Amino acid sequence: MIRLENVAWRAGPAVIVRDIALHVRKGETFGLVGPNGSGKSTVLRLVAGVLTPSAGRVRLDGIDQTRLSRRRAARMVAFVAQQADTAERVTVRDAVELGRTPWLSMLCPFGPGDDRIVAHALVRVGMSDKAERYWEGLSGGERQRVHLARALAQEPRILLLDEPTNHLDIHQQLSILRLVRKLGVTALVALHDLNQALECDRVGVMQAGRLVACGPPAEILTPDLIARVFAVRANYLTDPADGHRLIRFALSED
Amino acid sequence: MTVCATVPVRRRSLGLSRLILGLAALIAALAFGVSVGETVIAPEVIWKTLSNQLFGTDYPLRPIQEGIVWNYRLTRAIVAAACGAGLAVSGVVLQALLRNALADPYILGISAGASTGAVLVMVLGIGAGALSLSVGAFAGGILAFTLVIGLARAAGSGIGLPQAGLIILSGIAGTQLFNALTSFVIAQSANAEQVRGVTFWMMGNMSGVRWPDVRLAVPISTLGVLVCMAHARALDAFTFGAESAVTMGIAVRRTQAVLIGVVTMITATMVSITGAIGFVGLVIPHAARFLVGVRHDRLLPASALIGAVFLVMADVVSRVIVPGQVLPIGVITALVGAPGFAVILIRGRRQRA
């Protein structure tokens, strides 16, 4: 579904990411982890088409991203960026309706069908009772959920999420990730929390602009690799209640 | 193409009743603009003049009165309306594209650059008559805007969207520079007195507006407003920034290029006819947002109507406020606009807090 072929991206002389080869399968939830500045967001922005690769190719469903029109790409891929704020007095519903943009035109104005899609997206993120609230009065978590609803209203086959659980309380964190998995769309998610990454179908580990490992989380996120990439000591613990495995971290020098 | 619903949802349009109300207000303002002035002219004379000119009737009228109505006041009122609509829509578009509540063609230096361009064509004869005033003004406006954006980017992070304050500061620098150039060129030229003075280019002035100006201002303003209306949804998509607009299927660069071209075209045309009138593009969009909300399919027509009515009324005030004298119209718009600017600044601070 998403295929990156030896993709690189430079900002001036600085190489931000290089030699990224990655294949995200249809319907899969793929987690991208790595320290700050390792290039996770850049990879997402390349897939979203916000950035154009300096080398290599990004294919969506087999089609080169640069050959897709913006509109067609936006019908296929929705992107929830890390920080997208506004000073405008928009309501929650206004913001979510923006997600219909790639489906509308002068001959095809906003109709009852679009209204239903927007309403459904609001229900899915649990914001339908706050649809008429203004953006400026929302908490960080509510804003994140509105962005997710906006992305859902785009009816994408691919969902790109850049650290979607930032600003969310613990209940919202768990419910957002569960929601993404339930949607059945192909999802590429940049994550900070390695325990959340354990819940993905597969993960890719970024370090200094390269993809250094890729595979099922239980195989990839070994204490050894975590020590190398994140410079922390990691131990797997097992929850006695349900046998669920989780990672506990400590500074290596402790 | 996908099949789509054919019935649009009604609540999104401006509302026919409000549109009719707006148009009625505009016609009332035009009538008011024609009747008020140093010589009071009876409504009867106005209707008879219009009828004589438009439908070829033959009411007996005093030629002086008919001339005042048809050649002076009506042209003035129509150009003021076109100018007000065009500048207000320009303000809406710039505020959306730059995501800056203080953006407007006057503050960003586009008007000043257009003045310089027009003055160069008029006084120095650059282009040897091949270029019209408006083309010179357009070139000057584009140059000024490019410089201002370039300066803001150089002063900011170097890439991406410049910080809100930086672009306004750059606009002030650009405005000062181009106003100085305009003054310089006019001072240099021997025939400046016969052409137009410095105050005309910097404060705006509606005197001297005649029918050829109407035939330029009305089509440009109408065309500009329609092009912007066609991009209403794209402008909405800029709510969360250009990057977010890209991911919602907007060809951001093309949209920015087209709309900034259109805004500069409107501003340049108006500047070449009336000089640089300030604050219309800043204050009117905010007033319109207050009335109809932030969605551009409603905001653009509302701003156009309010801007048109506002400038017609400002012109009337500029003619009657000091007996026996006609103030530059920019004095009136600044008297209303500068406090408006202050209110927007203060409200912006509250929103950030």
Question: Could you explain the architecture of this structure?
Answer:
- The complex is a heterodimer of chains A (254) and B (353).
- Chain A has two domains: 2-89 and 155-221, Rossmann fold; 222-254, no CATH class.
- In chain A, 31% of the residues lie in helices and 29% in strands.
- Chain A has helices at residues 40-48, 70-76, 92-97, 112-124, 140-153, 170-183, 194-197, 217-220, 223-230, and strands at residues 2-11, 14-24, 29-33, 55-60, 63-64, 77-80, 158-162, 186-190, 202-207, 210-215, 232-238, 245-251.
- The model of chain B is unreliable at 5-10 (pLDDT under 50).
- Chain B is mostly helical and 353 residues long.
- Chain B has helices at 16-35, 43-55, 63-98, 110-124, 133-155, 164-188, 198-203, 211-230, 232-237, 242-247, 252-274, 280-292, 296-320, 329-352.
- Chain B contains 14 helices and no strands.
- The interface between A and B is large, with 43 and 35 residues.
Properties at a glance:
heterodimer; A: 254 residues; alpha/beta; Rossmann fold; 2 domains; 6-stranded mixed β-sheet; 4-stranded antiparallel β-sheet; 9 helices; 12 strands; 31% helix; globular; B: 353 residues; mainly alpha; ABC transporter involved in vitamin B12 uptake, BtuC; 14 helices
